[in-house]
Each structure stands twice: as structure tokens, then as C-alpha cells.
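1st attempt posting a full record on here, be nice pls
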Amino acid sequence: MKNKVTGELIRLSARQLRRMKLSEARARELARDVERLNGVALAAAEAGDFNDEPARFSAILLRLRAPESRR
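the predicted structure (as C-alpha cells):
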């Protein structure tokens, strides 16, 4: 991903959008999760077509998830 999701971005978003105060550690944890999810969502969007069935998006996300999370 070109622009990295940072803990600072998460902290600013939480404060401005949700009126929440996050610790730096928690913001870093969330940043890793958001960056991974955003990357997979972008890849799924590129793999799909505008006219695809909506359920296909979920199937693509499952296919793209990290190998270590597969069971």
C-alpha cells in the first residue's frame, strides 16, 4: 500500500470522528489491523467487477485473507 496507516492517523480519526481518546499502543494495534483490512478490500475491489453479485465480494475477501489465518 502506498500510504501507510499509522497510529497517529487512527488516533486523529478516533478523536475527530468518534470523540474517543486512544492510547498510542492501542492506536498502533488498530493501525496494523486497518492497514491489513484496507489492503485486502482494495485487492478484492480490483478483482471484482461493478456488476458482480454482492456476495462475490465476501468470497474474494475469504480467498485473499492471510494464509496463517486459514483453518
